[in-house]
Write a structure and sequence with these properties.
Number of helices: 2
Strand content: 15-25%
Order of helices and strands: HEEHEEEEE
Shape: globular
Structural class: alpha+beta
Number of strands: 7
Largest sheet: 3 strands, antiparallel
Radius of gyration: 20 Å
Length: about 160
């Protein structure tokens, strides 16, 4: 929707990371970024970016050449802030993606309200197969003040951790 908004939406690094964690914890096996590495449109008479030159968009066209939509790696290879926060997740997927792919997702908090800004519980899920599991935690919501959770304890595949609250 970047080409349709009157003003460009800024994607905070934690937005990108939170979305990726939630997707993986929900059963997705592909991170599927729209753009991971920005680029440059080729020279020519017609440009690949959509035109928004109207009074309703305040004549707010996209750049003619640059095409990166806040990608983790910019048009010229520059590492943007969300590149660094997503890197840990990419390393995890490199090492464990094949194992994760066959695991089913479980949602212990499914009975809790899923409305914006709810801060009374920790949002988490896990993916499991046989006696192995990965736990995914998201304690972030864009433009909301979500507090740290204390005394959290998980029970997954018969294992309770941490042992002390």
């Amino acid at each position: 929707m970047m080409t349709s908004y009157h003003r460009r939406v800024y994607v905070y690094p934690q937005d990108a990371y939170s979305l990726a964690i939630v997707k993986l914890g929900s059963g997705s096996n592909l991170l599927g970024y729209y753009m991971y590495h920005g680029g440059t449109n080729p020279e020519g008479h017609a440009y690949l970016n959509e035109m928004q030159r109207t009074p309703y968009t305040n004549w707010n066209d996209l750049p003619v050449k640059t095409y990166d939509f806040q990608a983790p790696l910019g048009e010229f290879g520059q590492k943007n802030p969300h590149y660094y926060i997503l890197r840990k997740l990419h390393l995890f997927m490199h090492d464990y993606g094949e194992t994760l792919a066959s695991m089913d997702a479980s949602f212990p908090q499914a009975d809790k309200p899923q409305t914006k800004g709810i801060d009374s519980y920790l949002r988490w899920s896990y993916r499991q197969k046989d006696n192995s599991a990965f736990v995914f935690v998201n304690n972030y919501e864009r433009l909301q003040n979500i507090t740290d959770k204390k005394g959290v304890q998980f029970e997954v595949c018969g294992v309770k951790f941490p042992q002390k609250k």
